Amino acid sequence: MKQLLKLSVLLTVFTIIITSCGGSPESKLVGTWKAQKVETDFDEQYTTPEMLRQVVEMQKETYFRIIDDSTLIIVSPGNSHETQYTLDSKDNTIAYFFDGTPGMHNTLGTLSSGKIVSESTTPLGKITIYYEKE
Fold first, then answer.
1. 3-class SS string, 99-131
2. Burial of 84 (0-12, 13-18, 19+ CB in 10 A)
3. How many CB atoms lie within 10 A of CB 22?
4. Tens digits of residue pLDDT in 2-51
5. Is the pTM of this model over 0.85?
6. 23 forms bridges with which residues in the sheet?
7. Could you tell me the residue ranges of all domains in the chain?
8. What is the spatial distance between Cα 17 and Cα 45, in angstroms, rounded to a whole number?
9. Residue 104: other Cβ atoms inside 10 A
């Protein structure tokens, strides 16, 4: 009888541990993500310090919310856009697309060490944004 009770308690504890660690990788992204750090590598002959400051501030004002395993809302001053997103389990790349254009994926960034790192190249140079979940 004691063996049965011990086994029952052990199975209950094991079940609690397994279910608490569960959930899809996408569900761990649910929440609000804001830019914590913005790095620029722009050609200085085409930019001014004021322009760089404005670019960095504009990036910090834009954030996004991941609502569930597929819905992402991009929020910028005076605008918001609801999109669908996917997480590539092979390389942790997050891509998003709008309902009317499911074949046109835009890369949001790569999930790495609890941050989403977004790199893009513009005519002025490269910009890297590090988003953290609030």
1. CCCCCCCEEEEEEECCEEEEEEEECCEEEEEEE
2. middle
3. 8
4. 443 333 433 333 333 333 445 677 888 999 999 999 999 988 888 888 98
5. no
6. none
7. 25-133
8. 57
9. 10
Separation of alpha carbons 94 and 104, rounded Å: 13
Q: Are 98 and 81 in contact (CB under 8 A)?
A: yes
Of the ranges 51-55, 64-68, 72-76, 87-91, which one carries the lowest mean pLDDT score?
51-55
d(CA 128, CA 38): 6
Query: The tokens of 116 are what?
Result: 């989403």
State which fold the 25-133 domain adopts: Lipocalin (2.40.128)
Output the six-digit token pair for 81: 């856009």
CA 44 vs CA 38, 61, 64, 90, 112: distances in Å: 17, 24, 30, 37, 30
Instruction: Give 50: exposed, middle or buried? Use CB within 10 Å, 0-12, 13-18, 19+.
Output: exposed
C-beta separation of 92 from 107 below 8 A: no
